[in-house]
Amino acid sequence: MPKKSMDSLTESMFYVLMALCCGPMCGIAIAEDITRRTNGRLRIGPATLYTILGKFEREKYIEEIAVEGRKRTYQITAKGRTAYEEELVRLRHCLEDAERAKGGFLP
Amino acid sequence: MTEQTTKYIHRLCPCDRCDIEGLQSWLEDMSAEGLFLIEDGVFCNLFSFVRATPARTRYRLDVAQKEKPRLFDSGNGLSTEERELYHEMGWEYLLSYSGFHIYRACKPDAPELNTESETHAMTIQLFRKQQRSLLFTALFDILFFGFLYASRPLGYPFLMASTTGICLLLGIYCLLVYIIARIFLRVRRLRQYEKRLLSGDSLNHRSAWREKALTVYTIRFLPFLFSCGIAFGLLSGLSRVGTESPLETFVGTPPFATIADTLPGDATRNRWGDYETTRSWNTAVGTITEWNENCDVKTEDGTPYFCILRLEYHETIAPWLAKGLERDYYTYDANRYRKDRFEDIATLQLGVDSARVYRNQGSLYVLMRHGNRVAHAVVIIHRDNIQENQWMLWAQAMAEKLKETE
Q: What's the complex ipTM?
């Protein structure tokens, strides 16, 4: 089922925001952080990462705070943190629903 | 990629510019044959390779999001930071081509460039929207300039074909249709990619590009063919300049009415030398004769007349062409100056298929058609500085001529 962009976050988008919630990072550090957090389950490609960073910058979810040599460092904004929290709540609900469903069909 | 030689091998790209799957597969097949794309190795559709040990290598295309359209691909459309990040993640930037960056995997375990189909669809969508706006711009330009110069989007096809020849006309129209169709097909292809990605599929990296190669080459050859048609049409149109000759050199009886048919007697005829000329030429849709008369005439009873006749006489290969030509002449005359200067004077009943008289910017036009012949003339016949309806004399004589030669 196709989703409209930013209605909800994709998995890669969610992990990019999760990485930035821990502190400002550059692109390559974000990619490494995601691979480490997911034990290599999710390896984000460079094109995907740049598309997401570009999209988040336009949506004001993140902002560039420093350019050191060739590295650009991004940090999450309040709007980005809210989007991340909302997605987290949505995912928690999904998980709770799934746990409940283990017990059988609802009456 | 070892045993690299410095001798470059050039290959024409067998895929359309937006055929991401085909282009990736072609480059991978080239590497399997030992041909590796070099950095900045593209000019128009010609790619440059170096020969090395064959090894199947991954090539990927990525939409150049920040890039502005350029005339030639130079390979500078990527920031140093991006280039470095891609390199650290196992991808070597090679060149930019038609709105895409081309990368080659420099580490065998490098993750795919696009690891999420939904995000990939977003970049394809961005590029599709750029192409779509290009399509709308092209359509708007054609319609705008069509109306600006001809008051009609397609101009005056019959008039153009009859005077400058069919090659120029077809060349221009075909080129316009080609441009629009190519952009439209690209937009459609990108839309298909987008739909597939949004439904969760990824792009096919093993596309059968060979089957489509001949079609791509043929399609790519078409604009050259159309440009040749335009060039030939222009040159053949220019070549008829200089074939004007004085009226005296016209051999035989003209198949149309002249001043002599209008004002018989011709006691004195003071011709204005250089302004009295004629020329004829053939085009694929028929023949055309231009006839310019500027003279003072004194008839047998001594009445002086001042006469100007500028006539274009067409004999087309089919009556329907003559109909179209007549329509084009009328629309052209009606729109060539300010609309409020145009005035329909009369539709004449002279026994021919159609005959009408109108005035624009002070000039009086007679437009007549019979069968496959069309006469379009500016007729000015003054007597004692009064024009009155003297043009009717010429119109009647012209109608008789058209009926005679039926």
A: 0.84
